[in-house]
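Throughout our pipeline, every protein is held as a single compact record rather than as scattered files. The remainder of this section carries one protein's record, kept here as part of the documentation.

===
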Amino acid sequence: MGKVTGFLEIDRQVHKYQPASDRIRHFREFTLPMSDKEVEKQAARCMDCGIPYCHGPTGCPVHNQIPDWNDLVYNGDWDNAIRNLHSTNNFPEFTGRICPAPCEEACTLNLEDIPVAIKTIEQAIADKAYETGHIRPYPPERKTGRRVAIIGSGPAGMAAAQQLGRAGHDVHVYERESRPGGLMRYGIPDFKIEKHYIDRRIEQMQGEGVSFHCGINVGVDKPVAELLAEYDAVLYCGGSETPRPANIPGDDLDGVHDAMPYLVQQNKRIGGEPIQSVAWPSPPIVAGGGDTASDCVGTAFRQGAVRVTQLDIRPQPPEKEDKLSVWPYWATKMRTSSSQAEGAEREFQVATLEFIGEDGALTGVKCCEVDEKRKPIAGTEFVIRADLAFIAIGFAGPAAVGPVSELAGQMKIAIDSRRSNNVEANDRDYKTSVEKLYAAGDVRRGQSLVVWAIREGRQAARSIDEALMGSSVLPR
């Protein structure tokens, strides 16, 4: 694949970032794209692996054929590279920007800490496809006469809608918010993915016959039962947005917030949507160590925070993992996001004991060190002064008001006992216990990556197509 000796001759290179002092002054993407020739050189580093783990179950949930399109890019065949990439991934410009790239962790060259720059190459292929006009509507040659409704327009709902629309079905997507995109539009900051990429895909899908109905909260404005009566199949692709309860004393103080509403408000502000604007004070504390916490850090700096402290209950991971014990799986090691690199102070193995306030307003956060079992260590208590605190410790499931509440109350749908409020459905046919109703994405598997949502949306689309038509040519 690529140049057989490329990995020996060419050093790993990924796209660079604008300096932190510059990028915190705006909310736009801050990566500096590489030239076509530079990307082709990076594709040449792909080895002739006997068993390429990058596109197997350990590397890529959608099974991107990474060695194949690396070879095509190396040879300058960008048109066939995007065709190959699109055969497994509907939205490579999304994953090329916001996927954590488990494929690079599974790359054979990662044994030497120099994996192929797969994520950079994927983004370059997708962006090149827009430049050359390859990404345009591809309407079906014939219509089936079958109608499918999709609840939720996040990556799972979008992937399923595009697949089913191209199969010839009349697809209608219902979205609670005023614009499509789900948590990908409202939960992920613009500095990680600008929303015109979502808008371009929506425009493409509309050209393929998919209809979007925004501002309709299914389960509140329109019952699920009504959709089941009107359509031949209904696919529920809600996001995981209910915050996991922290149960920390003082979490009712002014200045203590769940993380997601903070991110949603900023995304709506940038998108020009009407919001109830809040002047967030500074400095903030962010409790949590995941992507949502990191997004809060980057957003706070761009809003003018002078200091941001991030608290993580987990111990500080090692700088380097033991390759022979974890490769090709995702390793626990010290990782610094672009937002954290903008100046965040990080505290590890620290628990939040209490939010402290005066006259109902937050003034500080009482913390302590914890042992390996996350139990507080007596005598290690300390207080960090803060006017603002965000709780970003994960999500418990889909919104409490909406399809799940209606389905559980009126249709007695089976709920996954392992995941609070998640709809029970397997990952083979994605059928729920309600006739004609399917579920995919976060609402089925729990909070996860965009690439997993795309995979589930594609697989659910095939299952629906097969059920409606008796067979399917859609890939699984």
About this structure: The radius of gyration is 23 Å. The chain has a mean pLDDT of 94.
